[in-house]
Design brief:
- With about 220 residues, this protein is α/β, with parallel strands linked by helices.
- The protein has a single domain, classed as Alpha-Beta Barrel (TIM Barrel).
- The chain is about 30% helix and about 20% strand.
- An eight-stranded parallel barrel has the order 1-2-3-4-5-6-7-8.
- The N and C termini lie close together (about 5 Å).
- The model has no long low-confidence stretch (mean pLDDT about 90).
Length: about 220
């Protein structure tokens, strides 16, 4: 089994981002979705982005942002990857000249992940999240991990309701390429302190992922 990539998402504070770098995560996410409580302004995002070393990928999360706004974010923040959570089509996602991940909302009934994958041939990876269609990510809701396609053809990241307590089971069940966590590493969760990460939860989550990988060897 290959190593499970770790993405910590929804940063708003420099100290939290510094700890993520110290823990050696693979990706950090900065949120620009208009309705997200973790949404960053461009100047705030630029300051956070400047603290991320080259070996860690910076992912900019967008959700139905206008093209000119998305272009401003790309030019100012210089993310490595774009992550789309809205009604964007494949052509829109690809027009900015960066690799992109497309989120699939798995919270509703009858969602066919494989069919959604087919609609985005230009995507470099897919992120399966527990939120419902039309909702931003970071909701902290999980879905049935057995619904993750095992022959996606491209990397799949698992998100939604993950924490240090359940990520090992999630990895054993879905065998994803990567895992993505936001509210599961926050001090008070999305209700009281969105974007405020908890150092202990961050450490435990990273340790749990690596322990799951080691057990699978």
């Amino acid at each position: 089994m290959s190593r499970t990539r770790i993405k910590f998402c929804g940063f708003t504070r420099a100290a939290d981002l510094a700890l993520a770098v110290e823990l050696g995560v693979d990706y950090v996410g900065l949120v620009f979705a208009p309705r997200s409580p973790r949404r960053l302004g461009v100047e705030q995002a630029k300051a956070l982005r400047a603290a991320v070393p080259a070996e860690i990928g910076v992912v900019a999360l967008l959700m139905d942002n206008p093209a000119d706004e998305a272009r401003t974010i790309v030019e100012a923040v210089e993310p490595d990857i774009l992550q789309f959570h809205g009604r964007e089509d494949d052509a829109f996602c690809a027009v900015f000249g960066l690799p992109f991940w497309k989120a699939v909302a798995m919270g509703g009934e009858g969602v066919d992940a494989a069919a959604e994958f087919a609609r985005f041939p230009s995507a470099s990876a897919f992120l399966l999240d527990g939120h419902g269609a039309g909702e931003p990510g970071g909701s902290g809701r999980r879905f049935d991990w057995s619904r993750v396609p095992q022959a996606a053809g491209k990397p799949v990241l698992l998100a939604g309701g993950l924490s240090a307590d359940n990520v090992g089971l999630a990895i054993r069940t879905a065998r994803p390429w990567g895992v993505d966590v936001s509210s599961g590493i926050e001090a008070g969760g999305i209700e009281s302190a969105p974007g405020h990460k908890d150092a202990g939860k961050m450490r435990r989550f990273a340790d749990a992922v690596r322990a799951a990988d080691a057990a699978a060897e």
